[in-house]
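U., I forgot to send this yesterday:
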Amino acid sequence: METNEQVRILQELIRIHSVNGNEIAVADYLEKLFSAHGIDVTIDAFGDRRANLIAQIGEGTDPRILGFTGHMDTVAVPDASRWQHDPFAGEVVSGHIYGRGAADMKSGLAAQVIALIELKEAGDLPAGTLKFIATAGEELGTPGAWRLEKQGAADKLTALVVGEPTGGNVVFAHSGSITYRITSIGKSVHSSHPDQGINAIDGLLHFIEQERALFTDVADDQYLGKVQHSITIIEGGKQANTIPDQAQLFGNIRPTAVFNNQAVTARLTDLIDQLNHQTPFQLEMEITQSFGPILTEPDNDFVQLALHAAQRNYPNDVELKTINGATDASVFTLNRPDLPVVVLGCDSWNMAHQTDECTTIPSYLAAIKAYKQIARDFFN
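Result:
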């Protein structure tokens, strides 16, 4: 493809509103694009305009399967008036493409799609199978990845490339992610007699105070560092002159390989049990989302292959790195903990979810080349 066509594809993807949903529109667009180049696709629509998509190319003479994956949804735009560039226009200014999803991760998605198309158009089909997996809902609950995991979409993969933004750096490990809800049950009375009730908000405050130091004794992970943890949402009370009988909070924790999801959940459970026995408050916990950490050793052959491909094609210096974010790979490796995984994409992870989110055209074009290089080198 010419550069202007590659840029146009990313612009058109950004213009499709897929904020926490509507992936079917992205899937339909990709189906038409693939079909125009003779590549068959399968769209798995599962209601409410949600959909996954799978496409693949290759001779199939080599039994190995290399996976490329990316998600079709984006996070929301809380206040479009704060943007200098329309978040859904895909505007190009001074070598940057602006818009929601420009970094996270319609650029990586488009680059993977174009890599498949250009390999096929050049008659450069891999001896094995190159499988492209586009998912729904990665930003909120990962319903698409869970559905694909149950269908066995990743069961036979030999290795996997996740196209999240990394600025060309090859990420060989990322933390997990646990989201939990704590509900505090109290006793409601008039605020003129607070001693006769139990303020549910106070129950949350006791939890918050203990949570601050909950992981201070945990050893740092060799690659992922400390267990990161935060209280992110608090809700409680309906009326100022009434002691609230219910309140809740949400928190997010980033488990590491050395202190995994099971260890984190056990520590949370122990704290809740302790507070329920030692205070008048009744706290209940629910794990609403749990993704495990990903780790492929940096000296792994596939990690090194990806690093060499990135070094040959990105305009900037690239290196091996880790991130504290999570990806669909946590779902795809649920029953394949031995699956080699790297995360590699366009401009910086720090651009994800930002106002005036963007990617640079040189980094986007480099990602296309790097993905093709990985596919060639993997099967050669």
